[in-house]
Write a structure and sequence with these properties.
Blueprint: H1 2-24, H2 28-32, E1 41-46, E2 57-58, E3 61-67, E4 76-77, E5 92-97, E6 101-106, E7 114-120
Parallel strand pairs: 1-3, 2-7
Antiparallel strand pairs: 3-5, 4-6, 6-7
Bound molecules: copper (II) ion.
Protein name: Copper binding protein, plastocyanin/azurin family
Keywords: Signal
Pfam families: Cupredoxin_1
């Protein structure tokens, strides 16, 4: 009887170890979460006196410009379609782009900072 109990305990330990290994595996569901949120929003970052990349966005998208620098910057379209005005360091500016097109933009304080926003239909 004692031997059977011992076998049972060993079996339990084996099962417990096995299930904990399974639990340690990363959940595939978790990997799909980031970036899945708001389809109608896009973020453009300003880091180290440069605009980050921004993928083409459909018309009607809300664009959020985040100034991660300490310096003040602006996000200004060459044709005047949008102009954030001064965005203080750590600040942000949000606008909605409604008209399809290709918009060259720059920082009016630091004209060497440039980029292009593509708005699709
Ligand atoms: Cu600037």
């Amino acid at each position: 009887m004692r031997r059977i109990t011992l076998l049972f305990v060993i079996l339990l330990l084996a099962v417990a170890c096995g299930s904990s290994e399974v639990a340690d595996e990363p959940s595939p569901a978790g990997a799909a979460d980031p970036g899945d949120g708001d389809q109608d929003a896009a973020t453009l970052s300003i880091v180290d006196f440069a605009f980050g990349a921004i993928d083409p966005v459909p018309a009607g998208t809300t664009v959020r410009v985040v100034n991660a620098d300490d310096a003040t910057h602006t996000w200004t379209a060459a044709d005047g379609t949008f102009d954030s005005g001064r965005i203080d360091g750590g600040g942000e500016f949000t606008t909605t782009v409604d008209t399809p097109g290709e918009y060259a933009f720059m920082c009016s304080i630091h004209p060497s900072m440039t980029g292009t926003l593509v708005v699709t239909e």
